Amino acid sequence: MSEVIAQIHGRAGLITLNRPKALNALSLPMLRDITAALLAWRHDDRVEVVALRGEGKEGPFGAFCAGGDIRFFHQAALAGDPRLEDFFSEEYALNHLVHVYPKPLAIFMDGIVMGGGMGLAGHGRARRTLRIATERTKMAMPETNIGLFPDVGGGYFLSRCPGHIGEYLALTGHVIGGADAMAAGLADTVLAAQDLPALWQQLGADGAAALAAVPVLTPEPGVLAAQRGDIDRIFGLPTVKAIVDALEADGGLWAHETAQVLRKRSPLMLHVVLEQVRRARAMDLAEELRMERGLVRRCFSLRPGAASETVEGIRALAVDKDHSPRWNPARIEDVKAEDWQAFFEPVWPAAAHPLRDLVG
């Protein structure tokens, strides 16, 4: 069975991520299949609206996408596999395609929506896209936990969250539900999971009209609303050390728990991520994705092979599963400015950049 099922049903182009045992983690062939479907339907008059969902372990829906296939990243980095470069170039180009897609998109963000799943879900322009969360949505950009940064355009959409929610989500990798996703500007409505199958079918029958008829519901405030004042006050501070110092001096339970989380993340990548989000606020998506493409090359090349912070983070989480990454440097206080600034040095001349053709 194909890992991506793409079919036209009535007026809709329907894409199902079909790798449920891996929570629909994206492989390079999956990226290529999704891209091919979107390109084929872009000018197909039969298709009024395009919808994406994930197959769950118990049937359609229940899990959208857990991100990129990090086991593949680990193996490819150690083996010097050139497909690693292809993966990120093609994934980021797909993120941009979603952003500029000329037809309405419906993204069914039921269950896990993390990393690369956010890259598929987070970039539709609001006037043409409905990002649908449910009571089962578990959304996060948890890359600092594996020595990476919130890529797939994460700097772009996180930097556009209200206040300093973006820095908070980017640095901590905090998991949020549907209500918080709406509060952060990362979802457009929250529907009951039981209503999704009927809407999926209705898109085929009524096309874009079915999407326009979906109610935009405002759920009860979530956790982010309760902590918004603290988030803006602390995560708006200028440096990672200032943020952690403020959390540890606060004395409250939320601040204590948040500081503990940050102390477990890659100290080096926390610095990279804060700079990424701050720079991204002044960039369009194409510019931000080009920056990210350089960052991800640096993640695997500044310290090649097993010395890579990203390779070590994946080893600890998904390969050896000891959950004890050996970060280098080991402490936030030990990261020097030149350590994280090296990630932002250009990798390619502008005319040779693998994403040079992206616009806006």
From TrEMBL:
Keyword Cell cycle carried by entry: no
Membrane-spanning parts: none
Highest taxon above the source species: Bacteria
Keywords: Hydrolase
CDD domains in the cross-refs: crotonase-like (cd06558)
Pfam families reported in the protein's UniProt record: ECH_2
Domain Enoyl-CoA hydratase/isomerase positions: 13-344
NCBIfam families membership: PRK05617.1
Protein known as: Enoyl-CoA hydratase/isomerase family protein
Natural source organism: Ramlibacter aquaticus
